[in-house]
Known about the structure:
The structure holds two protein chains of two kinds. Chain A is an alpha/beta fold. Chain A folds into two domains: 2-148, Nucleotidyltransferase, domain 5, CATH 3.30.420.10; 152-237, no CATH class. Chain A has eleven helices and five strands; from the N terminus they run ααβββαααβαβααααα. Chain A has helices at residues 2-12, 16-24, 86-93, 97-102, 106-117, 127-142, 153-163, 170-176, 181-187, 198-217, 224-237; strands at residues 39-46, 56-65, 68-78, 121-124, 150-152. Chain A has a five-stranded mixed sheet with strand order 3-2-1-4-5, with helices on both faces. In chain A, a hairpin with a 2-residue loop joins strand 2 and strand 3 (68-78). Chain A is globular, with a radius of gyration of 18 Å. Chain A starts with a helix and ends in a 7-residue tail after the last helix. Chain B is built from 24 helices and 20 strands. In chain B, strand 9, helix 8 and strand 10 form a beta-alpha-beta unit. Chain B has four domains: 25-171, Jelly Rolls; 182-304, Roll (CBS-domain); 309-503, Beta Polymerase, domain 2 (2-Layer Sandwich), CATH 3.30.460.10; 506-652, Four Helix Bundle (Hemerythrin (Met), subunit A) (Up-down Bundle), CATH 1.20.120. Chain B is α+β, with helices and mostly antiparallel strands. The longest helix of chain B has 27 residues, at 346-372. In chain B, helix 21 packs across helix 22 (569-578). Residues 1-20 and 161-179 of chain B have low confidence and may be disordered. Chain A binds chain B through residues 24-25, 27-29, 32, 36-38, 62-63, 67-78, 103, 112, 115-116, 118-120, 189-191, 193, 195, 199-200, 203, 206-207, 210-211, 214-215, 218, and chain B through 1-4, 6, 8-15, 21-27, 29-30, 49-58, 78-79, 125, 127, 130.
Amino acid sequence: MRAILDKLALLRGRDRLIISNNRNFERFDYQTRLEDHSYVVFDTELTGLNPKKDEIIAIGAVRIRNLQIDLAETFHYYVKPENLDHTRATLIHQITPQQLEEAPPLETVLPMFLKFIEQDLLVGHYVTIDSTFLNRATRQLYNGTVANPSLDTMRMAQIYKRTVLGDYHGSQQIADGRYNLQKLSGELNLPYFEAHDALEDALQTAYLFIFLVKKLRTVGIKTIRELFAAGKEIAMSARKPDGI
Amino acid sequence: MAVKDRRKGPRVPSINGSEHAVAPDVAVAFLKNTMPFRELDDDALRDLALHCKIDFFPKGTRLLTYNESEITHLFLVQRGGVRAFITDDDGEIVLKDYRGVGSNIGALGIIRETKANLNIETIEDTFCYLIPRDIFKELVRNESAISHFYLKSFSDNVVATAYTELRKNKLTRRSTEELLLFNTKAAELSKPLFSVSATTSIQECGVIMARQGIGSLLVYVDEDPGSMIGIITDTDFRTKVIAEGRDTREPVSSIMSSPLKTVPADMLCFDVLLKMMTISIHHLGVEQSGRVTGVITSHDIMVQQGNSPYYLFKEIAAQSEFEGLYLLSEKISGLVRNIINEGAKAGDIARMIALINERIISQILILLHRQLGPAPVRYSWLMFGSEGRIEQTFKTDQDNGIVYEEPNPDQRAEVEKYFGVFGEQATYHLLKCGYPSCPDNVMVSNPEWCQSITGWKEQFGKWIEQDESHEQIGASIFFDFRHGYGTEQLAVDLRNHIITCCRRSNTIVENLGRYFLTMQAPLSFFEQFIVEQNGDHKDRLDIKLRGLAPFVDFARVLSLKYGIRQTNTLTRLKRLSAKKVVDKDFYLDMVDAYELQMQLRVIHQLSQIEEGNEPDDYILPEQLSDLEKRMLKDGFSVIGKMQSLMRKEIEEA
């Protein structure tokens, strides 16, 4: 069944959801100041880290507007996976197999999520992983990827430590796990809680994000362009892939 | 792309399929742990959480500016902390209040519909939950637990606000002697430095201290005489040398406190005192450009604070001339300003004024005895009415009398003559000290109120037992008498007599109780305030007569019934609660209502004094905010309940 749907999607070309999403960012202005953007901070829960066989089983997200976390605009869904290895999901995520069994499939959740993120920038901690799974899903279902620029709070934390705190050991610390969300939150003295689902992980990341944006302003990083430039600088010095 | 004007995103169905977004559990948990929102049930908390935004303010961010900022939302501190302060016209910071995790900021301004009454600045990186103003007001309006919480803190905060405004209006800046704590810097009070090497023997140090007449020595190491590593004080000699039987040939380093705690030379004495109180250390080094240049002690600060109550007390007691007392009593208003400045509340002010008045009366009487000779018999100076109840505010008429020991028949004429002159003189000197005459002539100079114990007992017996409602109502302020000077036992005997008489006869409780039932709470059926219909005070509410008096009367009548000796209204209510005459919740409601009115009255009078007018009790309900009106009405509604209780009490009697 899925294969037929995939073929149909291909025949139709890109889905209108993706087309409208991409249109939102055709003329994206990288000079806009960080506080003038809205953001969706999101987190996914996965059955594992292999994009080839693992799947999204939960999406949690919270919107940031005027650099304030808006608790009225949250998004949280469990997703029924195609193939479920029950034991593993239960162990890692405190999600019961039954919850997943009753959850809507990705085909239902994804359009809602695309509508939720609309014209906002995406934010995540190690956002590459979440984006990879998100785009794999949109590619499969809608034959295209989302165009929302994304920001990685892990990278931003590195920039912060380097430019504001003068700490040049970022990449080593990543390897040490010191850029782990919980450890960072503790180190930066952010409100900290035992996050037990994707929504709360997103919220924890949102705290980190508004902290970092306001701190980075003090060293002259005020627009998306300036943030990306600072990210590239770090990436080059650490010989890591582009982007932030 | 401009995203500023983007329309509000759709509410997204939650996991359980509801049409609305769900707030993360952690957000609900935060509110649940924060006063006063923990009073809400879970549904209300979830709903509230959805209306919250979370913001981050780096250290040093100004959140609110005094008299400028519109308060658009309540701030709840989740992480970090802020300081609250105002800056006077000279740029000095005159008040500091630190608020940390869990405290809320802006509630008072929202409730009173005013601009910010303080400057608020973050002193750490701070995260806050923001509750929109309208949502917060709705909560206060609809959730009784929340409004109760603010009603309580309101009465404290209201006064704080009034004081803040007064400070701004320079009420406290009339004399340079005042406000010492806020305009004197540590360096100005620091004492010159005496220091010794760490190797000096304890005994030698003792000699130096004795010779120089000093209470402390700083200690340095020989390698670096400029940097002080510790301090020894008199206390160290007591606790570490004598008490421990230590060999005084040991080096001083064995008993010093180290490291030396210091304050910067330009720190305000107020902050120095706060630091001393916080760390419980009374000697601090004063540091200027990295070097310790002197020592400052809590004693130095207290002594210098010339207009402190303590200082005035000592001065009053030291006066040997009436003229000196007249002059000193002029200082009372300054003193009141001073204690207001240090954050006193209505109750504190009343207690302080009572203490000072007693001290002045005592000194007048002591001087009179020097002039007229000692009294031929023992006596007790009695204070009636609000003075007896320790409830005066700024305007205190004389309401006093004397009860003296029963003289022998042959002594009587002499005793009466002595107290006649004594009473005349006392009244005169009190008048000169600024206490106006009592319009009803309830003063010691009136022979009716300067009687022997037998005379007084008869008088009270008559008031209690005769069935003359009118007389009893007129006499009720006498039942609030309190001993002020002389032999307290006479006042105690008189109180015992009253208690015995009340046990025998119910008429006074019944008559005063009935009279209380005729009092009308100042609310009509339409929930409007009852205001004066004509005269100078048209449209004003006499808060003393219509608001406070019912509480005073209620407490007095039931105290007579239940043999309670105390005279202060709040204390009487407390005793009534302890005796289970009133239940606990009702007691707390009465206390809240009474305190709120006391505070409103104090603020009203403060502002009148500030404008140079005579203080009175007529407040203008129009000038109250909606919420103040509502709280005041809630308070008045307690009167109805007091009346039903009184009805029951009379029927029993």
